[in-house]
Amino acid sequence: MATLDSKIPPGPLADKWRNHKANIKLVNPANKRKYEVIVVGAGLAGSSAAATLADLGYRVKNFVFHDSPRRAHSIAAQGGINAAKNYQNDGDSVYRLFYDTLKGGDYRSREANVHRLAEVSINIIDQCVAQGVPFAREYGGLLANRSFGGAQVSRTFYARGQTGQQLLLGAYSALSRMIGAGAVEMHTQSEMLDLVIVGGQAKGIVVRDLVTGAIERHAADAVVLATGGYGNVFNLSTYARGSNATAIWRAYKHGACFANPCYTQIHPTCIPVSGDYQSKLTLMSESLRNDGRIWVPKKKEDCAKDPNSIPEADRDYYLERIYPSFGNLAPRDVASRAAKRVCDEGRGVGPTGLGVYLDFSDAIKRLGENGVRERYGNLFDIYHEITAESGYRTPMRIYPAVHYTMGGLWVDYNLMSNVPGLFVLGEANFSDHGANRLGASALMQGLADGYFVIPYTIGDYLATQKPGSRPNADGAEFKAAEENVRAMTKRFLDIKGREPVSHFHKRLGKIMWEGCGMARTKATLEKALREIPALREEFWQNVLVPGSADTLNQSLEQAGRVADFLELGELLCLDALTREESCGGHFREEHQYPDGECKRDDEKFNHVAAWEYQGKDKAPLRNAEPLNYEFVKPSVRSYK
Amino acid sequence: MVAENTTKNLSITLRVWRQAGPKAPGRFVDYQSKDLNPNMSFLEMLDVVNDELTLKGEEPIAFAHDCREGICGTCSCTINGKPHGPGHGVATCQVYLRAFRDGDVVTVEPFRAAAFPIVKDLITDRSAFDKIQQAGGFITARTGSAPDANALPVPKGDADRAMDAAACIGCGACVAACKNASAMLFVAAKVSHLGLLPQGQAERDRRVLAMVSTMDAMGFGNCTNQYECSAACPKLISHDFIARMNADYLKASWRSVFKPEPASSAGGAG
Ligand SMILES: Cc1cc2nc3c(=O)[nH]c(=O)nc-3n(C[C@H](O)[C@H](O)[C@H](O)COP(=O)(O)OP(=O)(O)OC[C@H]3O[C@@H](n4cnc5c(N)ncnc54)[C@H](O)[C@@H]3O)c2cc1C
Ligand code: FES
After folding, report:
1. Is the pLDDT confidence value at B269 over 60?
2. Domain residue limits, chain A
3. Ligand 2 neighbour B74 (Cβ under 6 A)
4. Which of A125, A143, A476, B73 could form a disulfide with B170 if both were Cys (CB 3.0 to 4.6 A apart)?
5. B62 contacts in A (CB within 8 Å)?
6. Stretches in chain A below the pLDDT threshold 70
7. Any residues with CB less than 8 A from the CB of A95 and at least 6 apart, and which?
8. Which residue of A has its CA nearest to B155?
9. ipTM for the complex?
């Protein structure tokens, strides 16, 4: 049984982080360079952490599977980043951002973590502006804001539709500066394939050089994983194709607990699927919901008609109807399920019937076509590119798609997992979003973790490690990990079956979407839990991985990632089956109010489920970390 | 969530550059690709071709890709002689088959430039771009030392211009499109983004000198104002930024009393 000590500092909510920083152990400046830290990942979380730790004086090695740190999936975030600056004077505050995030997460996150996130959000914007991130500005030269789902204030900072790109390039520039200065040793196209534990602590990793196929061992005093989310377990998603769970999954198999894997987010505004060759789904930023109105026909017969010909009286603006106070800006999970419901009723539109309209005709009347173009032009262009339709002429068609994973490796307040020395940042951890993440808060969390949390909290661990006590990468544990990686690689190549890796990924994705997608039931989950092990079995018998281990081999890379998804998918469904309540992104049809809203069971499930690996073919152990609400009283989440 | 394939099909002959490794000889190989849906993306077609090759026991075509929505800068094919192919202001991953006609022969090559050596098939090594960034493509701002973000208003026009330049995705199409394989547009975009902002002034001279000297050292060619770079840029970054950088470079050279530091030590941690 794992020990799950959240290490939440005592004292009043607003003082916890300050007191913690004051009490935390420090590493003296002269000793910092004696410690080596491995950071895996260079998305917002990884690059901000690597740059900041190096600037503090630690020796940092940074690993990414991409060919440049600038290509991490964070680059694709469009809409924006939240911060409690209250620059709009509209009543925002640290407390309100804290409260919105906690409520948005359906009261399934830790109060102390979320409050810290809201506190440091303010510093993030300062830091980014100082680095030259070109946020949108008003004519007076001050920063502009927009509003996002789940909030009634304007606290989202943005850089056109490319906020993630600009924030990542800011962090990448800080990282580049440190690489240029020799303070960070950068390893691109290096995929972490195993974690090395020495004496119960994380002390290194084994990586494969994706260009030469060489397997390398790297030792360190601490290991930081910032490897992103695991949404590609569904195959079709808004994630980049390369995003994967291998780093966190292999850490899980070394004893790091995996928390709340079933908390996955389905984003309401994505371009619908068009064919079975489809490789990814494209998100249309949620900011579109500021001005676009979502509707479906009231009558099934109208679904195939030209939408412009359907009179106002025959349209059902269902979000505005059901949620009058938040309307089209209802949180993502709520908006996605509402779309699913109307499509299930047979009122979906488009060739598949899996689509709803996002209509800008009112906005065009109000702002003019140019006004709309100014705000969302690039998104309309994306839509046109993909569908060959104009969103200015006819309503866009959208449908929900897998977008984000709130679950991840369990971490304490210091962002350390239950394996000492193993820290987890960004989307890879489970920490701040509970059962549902609000828009524009993943970027905030990634940068909070990397710039403002880990630089302090890693010291608390390193101060307990004697400088120079780092094990040698030639030790037995390292050799065993390397052997493990080599054996797995060989196994993939030796199967020589009849189906390419991609077929298994597609089939897994279908099982996951049907069994554990937007709405889950005991029956669908049990079915998925029968199908996944069978598919996994088939994979290990029948996968066909061409090429060799000692060159660039994309099929081999893919095989390793899909093999991990085939295990993680099962844990995800198991977690969903065990959590017999509905909360945020986890919707169990058995647990809902008559109006279709999530019915939590605070009595039984007001806790984090942290799964612990017990060995191959053994059922994992479900540990629970109780969530103690001291400052906010969980209530039924209402956006009406 | 799979759609009916209602649209008409098309067939294409792909003429693809195959090269087993950096030192191996390369050649074009033809592949027939049939029954394609025009709504399919170009890279999805390569996925399908690769699954077919795999099933036939051949090695699939190695190609770089990740986000598949035109922002990460990973994808990098020259299609029918044009970096990123037939579209305007799009990356390879944003090319859809409706841009081609039934029966077309389509050549697919890697981005070609001496500074981007071929790794395998359609994949090149573009790490030279990272080296240029490391030499000076940043504003030194130690974490935690920043003033309030609204303490320094930035005129909207300057911020917008900076954003125009900052939109670069670092794909290298500009280099591949240039007959001299010059990286001027890439470097100018970063120099201009940071140089247009008040925060970027302190290091402005050092930045442009260090980035340009590293660019030269990495083996990129000279700019002779052909402007093929802007035309091929998936973000349509304007070549005006090159003129801006040249002016910056000249001024910085006059002002500088020090020689630009080499890439490894420029922008030290101090
Ligand atoms: C289309 C889209 C739009 C979004 N828009 C927004 C938005 O507007 N606002 C918002 O707040 N959030 C948004 N999000 C969510 C947000 O972008 C992500 O949650 C966040 O960027 C994740 O950052 P990260 O640093 O944790 O991981 P990532 O950016 O995914 O980085 C992962 C890093 O880990 C490396 N890596 C992974 N595995 C390995 C391994 N085994 N070995 C070596 N390296 C490895 C990768 O190379 C990469 O560098 C969006 C997400 C998507 C998909
Ligand atoms: S794959 Fe990211 S830009 Fe094309």
Report:
1. no
2. 268-402, 476-605
3. yes
4. B73
5. 552, 554
6. none
7. A14, A118
8. A141
9. 0.95
